[in-house]
């Protein structure tokens, strides 16, 4: 076999091999993400963990969640390169953090901050049966109602 033909066949093999394994890996990652966002009311894809965020943007989202006392599932994208890329493909959003509510992508840090400041986050949480702690904090106490 001549050298050029051999190199060509080798590159074809490598390309198809890469495509096959990448397609498999993407399908598995997509399924994992899909399951996670559909079985939890709130999911935060972040860098680091809520107790120790490894990026200021992720930390800001954690602080917002904490203020509202939102129970959520989190996933550290730094521990899984497939998820780090996979979540960007899944939501068509280029950065981390990413917040999902009721299976829907809601936004990253800037959007969450905006929703927190406008009161929209309280409303979105209410829609999925989560009562924000900020709402409770501003409600008049029983004795004040009398
Ligand atoms: N403006 C963005 C800030 C987030 C951001 O810029 N994230 C960067 C740095 S942490 C990122 O995810 N880069 C791609 C990557 O690290 O995979 C937001 O609102 O969430």
Q: Which structural class best describes the helix and strand composition?
A: alpha+beta
Q: Give the number of helices.
A: 7
CATH superfamily: Glutaredoxin
Sheet with the most strands: spatial strand order: 4-1-5-6
* Radius of gyration from CA coordinates: 21 Å
Which descriptor suits the 3D outline? Answer: elongated
| Text of the CATH class | Alpha Beta
Mean pLDDT: 86
| Number of beta strands | 6
Protein name: Glutaredoxin domain-containing protein
Keywords: 2Fe-2S, Iron, Iron-sulfur, Metal-binding, Redox-active center
Organism: Chilo suppressalis (Asiatic rice borer moth)
InterPro entries: Glutaredoxin, GRX_PICOT-like, Monothiol_GRX-rel, Thioredoxin-like_sf
């Amino acid at each position: 076999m001549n050298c050029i033909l051999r190199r060509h066949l080798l590159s074809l093999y490598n390309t198809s091999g890469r495509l096959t394994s990448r397609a498999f890996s993407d399908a598995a990652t997509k399924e994992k993400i899909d399951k996670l966002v559909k079985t939890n009311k709130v999911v935060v894809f972040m860098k680091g963990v809520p107790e120790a965020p490894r990026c200021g943007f992720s930390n800001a989202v954690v602080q917002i969640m904490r203020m509202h006392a939102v129970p959520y599932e989190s996933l550290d994208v730094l521990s899984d390169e497939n998820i780090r890329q996979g979540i960007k493909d899944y939501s068509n959003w280029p950065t981390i953090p990413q917040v999902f509510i009721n299976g829907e992508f809601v936004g990253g840090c800037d959007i969450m901050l905006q929703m927190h400041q406008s009161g929209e986050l309280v409303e979105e949480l209410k829609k999925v049966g989560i009562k924000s702690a900020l709402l409770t904090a501003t409600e008049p106490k029983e004795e004040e109602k009398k």
